[in-house]
Specification:
The protein has helices at 23-31, 54-72, 84-91, 97-102, 126-132, 139-142, 156-160, 166-174, 181-185, 211-223, 239-242, 244-255; strands at 8-12, 36-37, 75-81, 108-115, 143-145, 150-153, 179-180, 198-203, 228-233. It has 262 residues and is an alpha/beta fold. Strands 2-1-3-4-8-9 form a 6-stranded parallel sheet, sandwiched between helices. Strands 5-6-7 form a 3-stranded antiparallel sheet.
Length: 262
């Protein structure tokens, strides 16, 4: 498809992450012709004690998406990484292009692209998946909880960035922040994946959202009769860095997916 017809991308980053970590990916997406917005989530400002959680993150992204739609009738491709799947799914509730078009309204969300991300039913939570997968007893082995209500991975290089070039790992680790534990336990409310076309990227070497997590989530979604295009890549939790070219290609494919027009 021509660059003039490409949708606008809203990229929702993961827990502990900040937009600079995604800059190489953003630059590559822009080179492919996309306009990209990657807002800093309020939960990831590094404040102590944390001043925001899932609700504030959702409000931030929804404000951006609704403004883009209302100001320019934008068609939106959501790209969501890790915890960003919870945020992005809730944020776009009721904004699917086809439903807006049926109501005589221009613009809307055309596709949901989950990168190693949480795709949850209403009432679900990250912690719920952790418990269902049997990982809860191992939490303290891999994640440190701090007295101020935040938490952080003990070894983010191994969990987040296996498969990423060393120079990019150092830059990324330097841009990480502690994350509010409450956001992992907050319950989601959105289910737009039931209506909006979905592509889901599973990384076979993911140590942050491992296969057990994605299997639980995708089994539940598919069990509702929802078609999900699942793409497996042999890399770790950050394919937007380790397999950047492929992820840009997937964004182009998602943008042109024949399901997008409903």
């Amino acid at each position: 498809m021509s660059t003039s017809s490409l949708p606008t991308i809203v990229l929702v980053h993961g827990a502990c992450h900040t937009p600079p970590i995604y800059q190489p990916f953003i630059t590559s997406l822009q080179s492919a012709g996309f306009t990209v917005h990657c807002p800093l989530l309020p939960s990831c400002t590094g404040s102590s004690p944390p001043s925001a959680s899932l609700l504030e993150d959702v409000a931030c992204v929804r404000s951006l998406v609704t403004n883009l739609i209302s100001s320019s009738s934008a068609r939106i491709l959501m790209i969501m990484h890790s915890y960003g799947g919870c945020v992005g799914t809730d944020a776009v509730e009721g904004l699917f292009l086809s439903s807006r078009s049926a109501a005589g309204l221009p613009g809307g969300v055309v596709h949901l692209l989950y990168l190693c991300a949480y795709i949850l039913p209403p009432g679900g939570s990250v912690w719920g998946v952790v418990e269902e997968a049997g990982f809860a007893p191992l939490w303290d082995q891999y994640i440190e909880n701090f007295p101020d209500g935040t938490c952080a991975l003990r070894d983010p290089r191994a969990a987040f960035y296996n498969g990423v070039e060393d120079s990019e790992v150092e830059t990324a680790v330097g841009a990480l922040v502690p994350f509010p534990l409450a956001a992992f336990k907050a319950r989601t409310s959105g289910d737009e994946w039931r209506r909006v076309p979905v592509t889901y990227v599973r990384a076979t070497e993911d140590r942050a959202v491992p296969a057990g997590y994605s299997e639980i989530m995708l089994r539940r979604v598919k069990g509702e009769g929802v078609h999900v295009r699942v793409v497996e890549v042999e890399t770790g939790h950050s394919p937007f860095l380790s397999r950047r070219g492929e992820m840009v290609g997937l964004a182009v494919e998602a943008a042109g997916d024949e399901r997008n027009e409903g």
